[in-house]
Amino acid sequence: MALMARPRRLLGVLILAMIAIPGVIMPFQRARIYSAAEYRKLAPGPGWPQSGNFTSWPKSIDRYLGDHFAFREVLVKVGNRTFGRVTAPGAPPAVLDGAHDRLFLFEGLLASTGHELDRDSATDYANFACELDRRLRPMDARLVVSIAPSPADIYPDDAPDLALPVYKPTNYDLIMAALKACGASAVDLRPALRGAKNIGELYRRTDTHWTALGALIAYNKVVAVIGRPDFAISLAGVRWTSATRLDGDLPRYAGRAPIPETVMTPDVLELPETARRTTLSGFQTKLDPPSISSGEPGPTVLIIGDSFTALFFPAYFAHFVGRVVWMFQEDCRFDWNIIASVKPDLVLLMPTERFARCPEGGRPINYDSRSHDRF
Amino acid sequence: MLFPSPTFLFFFLPACIAAYFAVPGLRTKNVVLTLASLVFYAWGEPRFLVLMVAMIGMNYAAAIAIDMRGRAARKISLALAVFMNLALLGIFKYADFAAGILNTFLAPLGVEVPEPNLPLPLGISFITFHCLSYLIDTFRKRFPANRSLLEVALYIALFPQLIAGPIVRYKTIARLLSKRYLSLGRVSAGLRIFVIGLSQKLLLADPLAGAVSAVFDKAAAPPTFEAWLGALAYTLQLYFDFAGYSAMAVGLGMVFGFALPRNFRVPYASRSITEFWRRWHISLSTWFRDYLYIPLGGNRHGAARTYRNLVIVFLLCGLWHGAGWTFALWGLWHGIFLVLERAGLGRILAVAPAPLAWLYAMIVVVFGWVLFRAPDLPHAVAIWRGMLALNQGAAANPAFTLALNAHLAFVLTLGSILAVFGFPLPRGALRPLSRAVWADNIAVASLLWLSVLRIAAGTFSPFLYFRF
Known about the structure:
Order of helices and strands of chain B: HHHHHHHHHHHHHHHHHHH
Oligomer: heterodimer
Strand content of chain A: 5-15%
Strand order of the largest sheet of chain A: 6-5-13-11-12-10-9
Number of domains of chain B: 2
Radius of gyration of chain B: 24 Å
Radius of gyration of chain A: 24 Å
């Protein structure tokens, strides 16, 4: 049989060698815990399953082997060069180039310019926020809901052609309208941010996030809406320092080389001297919530958000309030017990635009007696 | 565990091959392969291992019971065992669908049956059909029930064919369970087929996923070009994905000394739907023919009974693929065209110019795949409308525009040629010691290299919020 002829046998040996080498060499290579190219910790060794729970064990082994097979870094680099960085096989690129050297994350881009509209999801999210409002009122906590807009919302002229023109309404519009209809305090940050574009860069060009200035404009808008103009930070009084940074997450996400970008940092990001920073523990959350006590009397603010708020808002609030706590939320899941523990006067619910949704009917953990979800 | 994953390709498969060939004696090799198959199965969802072991035990005992008893008792044993297998399939795969149908009828009464929402055990449709073929053929006295639990376990759980077939009849590999020939030549030939299947999946099917998803999942009313390109891309994606998995299974089977049946024979070269089903998922169509169509009477009781049987078989064939109305309609769609071909269209196609007959078959198949892939019937109708140029004024979908690139065009072109014409081999290309063998070796090694790169690149997972 021709297929089994002698020259063929070498092919079998070659194939076996090619597929076995990454596994055979792996134990002999230096153990790595961090991938600089991906800016993340590599999966740790799976260990023996805790309390005999074998269900998720194979997945943790998959993650470990997927992160540690020999020559992974080289193969990934060559693979990304050969096929281009995509989020999944056949999926669109993770990152798109816009005008004026601005990069855009593809995830959520079309929704931010109205090309993808999910009325059910928007309604569900607004219902969730309205429900929170009703639950917090008897607890003497005021809820303010806002959404950190996507860069394409503020810089549509820089957005990639495929995301244009901008259609109305967007999911952001729908959520805001529904929040207003139910009487919740809703802050639409887009007009304030669009109106401040001439002041400076509001969003980073090589990163998914807004800049400290963009966050400051948003912060001032929020405190204006809650009726605390005394909490506002005057731009005129802020001192800025600039630095060239290579840490933009979008080139990395696209599998490209780092791109230098000048980033301005305000002095108000430094905490007041009297402030004390701790972290809260005992909550079901991916990150222990940081808590900043200013050392001065004042209201307690709880921010429920993600990286957009985490980087700036606690520091801005810390100059004016007695205590500010920040808690991570994802898919509307955060530990409801934090409300009773922190006893906030003000709760700011502020996800990033593309995360303003509660997929699969997500609700907070410990929200009611039936909820036993865990991260 | 998926074949195109680092865990399988770089660790499980080499370790499994090494252990298999390291141990002496076929019985020990069977133990190694059975254990490897159970680990492979448990990897996706460890708790379903209990189900797999229970099915092995039940069918092992049932076959012996069928084999030992008198005619009446044999029938009862068979009926009971078939019922148990189908009940398990029904509970896990069709309970939600059945509850949905029931609720439609109960709605006027204000009663609602809760949907159990059970997770679907990996490959349960294939496993059930394996077990049924073993039981029925034992009942038909095609072979005696196998008294070796190990061999029955290996037949049912053999990992190469566990996820996506082909559906291997017991008689196909019965002899090989206790006696098979192993050699480096067979390992090489098997790995070659495996690599070809792997590259079909990773290099031809997967790159089409973005365009397919843009049309089927994102567009409400796709314009004509978009609808056709989406439907054609899915036609190729499904073929290379499924045929790729089948080829990987056949190749791995050969590595371990088993001859698994070929599942695809260039189906998109067919000139009728009848011919299509002789070339597409052959192990399934022959299973339905032997265990359902013929017992129903086949074509032996007149035209009307034949047509009825065809429609029943293909309706169930559709439902076997998925518990949903779109799958049932897809089966019905094929059943209707098979009836039409039997009723006279087939004779016209036989004398029609070959390109015309091919065009007819492809149009039926492609329109059918729209039903198969669409999330629901309204979506399928919207795509059909697009294909028939009835979505006037529909705007292009940006996600689809983004998917259109040179790579997609290349894959579509190459994929179309390979899907319709097969791989054009020059005469004598596979003759031993000819230069073509070395060229073939280099080509296969290159395909593996590209597939490895694709798998490695798939593990790249940069953290977006590094400062967070």
